[in-house]
Amino acid sequence: METKIIRVTDKGQISLPIEIRTSLRIQQGDELLITRTNNLMVLKKVKSSDFKDLLKHSEKVAQKLWGTKEDDIWDNV
Fold it and tell me: pTM of the prediction?
């Protein structure tokens, strides 16, 4: 487990320590997911492929909920 104390800038930005970036292979342009639960904040490196399954599921749920004849009335609004 690696632990570092970092500071937040006046713009709300943080810098990830080089040791952590290197060990997690985080490079410029990579995306991180931030999750907060109460007083705990977690950063996770993500890839766009991580969300493909979630997106497919969301599309199926949306189609099931909104792909009905009752909702066709909204097509003309």
Answer: 0.57
pLDDT mean over 37-43: 92
Which residue bears the tokens 């991580």?
Answer: 50
**46: in domain:** yes
**37, 46, 49, 69 from 56: Cα distances, Å:** 26, 17, 11, 22
Euclidean distance between the first and the last CA atom of the chain, given in angstroms as a whole number: 55
Residue 75 — pLDDT band, cuts 50, 70, 90? Answer: low
- Number of folded domains that form the chain: 1
> Residue 25: inside a domain, yes or no?
yes
Report the alpha-carbon distance of residue 52 to residue 57 in Å, rounded: 9
Provide the residue range defining the domain that includes 38.
Answer: 18-71
How sure is the predictor about 65, in pLDDT bands with cuts at 50, 70 and 90?
A: confident
Q: Is residue 61 part of a domain?
A: yes
